[in-house]
Amino acid sequence: MDINKITAISAIVFGLAGMAAPLTHAQDMQGTVAYMNGGIGAGEQAKLRESAKDYNLRLLFSEAKDGAYVSNVKLDVADHHGKSVFSLATAGPMTNLKLPKGEYEITAVYNGVKKTTKVSVGEKPVSLSFNWAHQDN
């Protein structure tokens, strides 16, 4: 085999190997709000827990007695004027947000059941858990 074929095959093999590598969960932005969302699987959960120190609002979504994590939560964060400053159609099971200091109303909807709470966000991180009763479909 000549050197050109070896080089071409090597480039293909290493390129495919790079595609198989796990993706690192990155921070996203929505307007001025930095966030990370995910947590399906141990790797994503570890990454979100590790990065939680960089966020001042940490949300966890779970279901029923066993606390099984849930995703597909419709999430909305409104400021003290009622204006939506952040929303996700499919949040969870873990969502970390970096919000400006202030008062917020958090609304989370899972399987049609809405939960709402108010929170004051500042420099110190705030952790909130939303838990829904198990629903057999």
Automatic annotation (TrEMBL):
User: Looking at the keywords, is Signal present?
Assistant: yes
Q: Does the keyword Signal apply?
A: yes
The name on file for this protein is Carboxypeptidase regulatory-like domain-containing protein
Q: Which domain of life is it from?
A: Bacteria
* Signal sequence coordinates: 1-26
Keywords recorded for this protein, A-Z: Signal
